[in-house]
Amino acid sequence: MEMQQNQNLSTLKKCAIVYKHECKKFFKSFLFWCVLCLVVVIVVALVFQHSYFSRPIDFLGDMKFGDDWRQVLEGMLADANGDTKAVINWYLDNNIKPYSQGSLSQYLISDNMLIFLSMLAFVSYVVCNIVCQDISKPTALSNNSLPLRRYQVLLCKVAFVATIAVGFALLIFIVTIVSGWLILGFDNFSSVSLQIQDGAIIAMPVYLTGLIVCLLNCVTFVFVGLFAILLSTIIKYDFPSAALNFVLTYSLMAVAFLVMFVYDVHWVEFLPFIHVALSTIFIDPSSMGNRMFDGIGFSFAILAFWSVVIVLLSIYFNGVKLKKLNSKKQVTI
Amino acid sequence: MSIMQISSLTKKYGSRLALNNINLQVESGEIVGLLGSNGAGKTTMLKCIMGMLPCSFEQLTVRGNCIKQSFHLAMQDIVLMSDKNMFYEHLSGFDNLYFFAKMYGKTKDNLYKIVEQVGLKDRIKDKVRSYSLGMTQRLSLARCLLISPKIIIMDEPFNGIDIVGVDFMIKTIREISQKDNTSFFISSHNLAEMQGLCTRFVLMKEGNIVGDVQNTDVLDIKSIYLEKMG
């Protein structure tokens, strides 16, 4: 009877149970509350700092737009060309004031690199902690008794890591919006950000642009999370794995860019790390969004391909690690 | 009815013979004590039975399912419990068990029955980190029982547990064995407790089985042990 009950559960349902268990483990851990508090404190502090102390920098020059913004833009129009001219004309034609430096709008779409980096470090650490906890303690061996194959258990962890990554990105966005609203008022979200595609200007509300940045960060976080799984499976200790993950991600990206530009070697574009800094490549007001369409050959496909490779490597190393654990330690169900 | 059958089980670590041509069978409802000094090959044997170490054998079956060819079928009827704490300490005993219960299609009612059986009803909602070693062992036993195995393998289940805890474990094991006809295969150094628990003893020395005796009221396992090991 009981065996029948067991067999009635599909593999997908069993995977869902493992996934939910992973979530429960994390949300009931001290680490979760620590990270949550840190994220909120850092984001709010940066929003506050940005709003009151940032140096005037704007994508249309180092200037603030006051009530005379039309005259200022018209003055700039004479010297402008190409995309800049089109953007200025768009503002004038639509009678919309460009967002100014120091505003939350600018912050949302361009100056959140500090948050991005700190969150990347958090994602790395959380993932490494979760994976290493299972490998360094014998709890991983209890997975032996699950009616699932090892790779299926690991894939559940991958799904959980993706959830964490998306959760982090959305958390940053929500905390930024809410804290910006509380500190600066909702007017700050009324401005638009512009993207140029094939000469045509696409205007997006700034909170929507912020959301896109957030979603792009999700992809980065997921990739970095997967890389963290691989490293922590090999290294076994959470802090060194997280630190190495963070350093490798950025140093390899820098090296790849260097090799590509200095030595004009283009095969490095097929390596994953160039494609990690998504939001800075996609939406950069200093180039008015042009890099979104004609910048470095950014590709989701390349990132997806490398993600699959990393997951497969993780499955392999996870199997090797568990075999070693089996032969060294005492095991249970 | 034979639950587990082993014939010609051999395991080598390099050139060293850890298990030498082991032949053994465990009947339904039996509580078999596996005795032997350190390095006799007890743990190696348990790991080989659970398919955790590569080994050679003619037959190694659990309810007729070979652990090599039908690993997953065999593992539905056999489970290994160790003295190591393999629980998530920041979760409650209930959370730890409920995960396994769901995986095996068991309801909360099933779970509570087992928890009551192992005497953890009052503390099951507490975090595992607050449990004593004895309670952790009972929790391990509860997790084993969740999959309704036909045979439970235990490696040093009484290690580090106080006398009250050991007494409780012995009573629980006996009760489970009688009620569900579950077999136990227990490795331990603790001769006094094993004498009061097991229905049969298997003695190991240097990878060989050197004795296989049924327990009786008049049997003095200590003297037999000393004689065989000496």
List the topology elements:
The complex is a heterodimer of chains A (333) and B (230).
Chain A: H1 2-8, H2 11-27, H3 30-53, H4 69-77, H5 82-94, H6 104-109, H7 113-136, H8 139-142, H9 150-184, E1 192-197, E2 200-205, H10 206-235, H11 238-262, H12 278-282, H13 291-294, H14 300-328
Antiparallel strand pairs in A: 1-2
Chain B: E1 2-13, E2 16-27, E3 31-36, H1 42-49, E4 59-62, E5 65-66, H2 71-75, E6 78-81, H3 93-103, H4 108-117, H5 133-146, E7 151-155, H6 163-180, E8 183-187, H7 191-197, E9 200-205, E10 208-214, H8 221-229
Parallel strand pairs in B: 3-8, 3-9, 6-7, 7-8
Antiparallel strand pairs in B: 1-2, 1-4, 4-5, 9-10
Give the uncertain stretches of chain A in residue-range form.
1-5, 53-59, 281-296, 328-333
Helix content of chain A: 55-70%
Secondary-structure content class of chain B: alpha/beta
As an assembly, this protein is heterodimer
Do you know the CATH topology of the domain at 1-77 and 151-162 and 183-230 in chain B?
A: Rossmann fold
Task: Please list the strands of the largest sheet of chain B in the order they lie side by side.
Answer: 6-7-8-3-9-10
Quick recap of the structure?
Helix content of chain A is 70%, strand content 4%.
List keywords for this structure.
heterodimer; A: 333 residues; mainly alpha; two-stranded antiparallel ribbon; 14 helices; 2 strands; disordered N terminus; B: 230 residues; alpha/beta; Rossmann fold; 6-stranded mixed β-sheet; 4-stranded antiparallel β-sheet
Description:
By secondary structure, chain A is mainly alpha-helical. Chain A has helices at 2-8, 11-27, 30-53, 69-77, 82-94, 104-109, 113-136, 139-142, 150-184, 206-235, 238-262, 278-282, 291-294, 300-328, and strands at 192-197, 200-205. Chain A is built from 14 helices and 2 strands; from the N terminus they run H-H-H-H-H-H-H-H-H-E-E-H-H-H-H-H. Mean pLDDT of chain A is 73; it is low at 1-5, 53-59, 281-296 and 328-333. By secondary structure, chain B is an alpha/beta fold. Chain B has a domain at 1-77 and 151-162 and 183-230: Rossmann fold (3-Layer(aba) Sandwich). In chain B, 36% of the residues lie in helices and 27% in strands. Chain B is built from 8 helices and 10 strands. In chain B, the strands form 2 sheets. In chain B, strands 6-7-8-3-9-10 form a 6-stranded mixed beta sheet, sandwiched between helices. In chain B, strand 7 (151-155), helix 6 and strand 8 (183-187) form a beta-alpha-beta unit. The interface between A and B is medium-sized, with 32 and 34 residues.
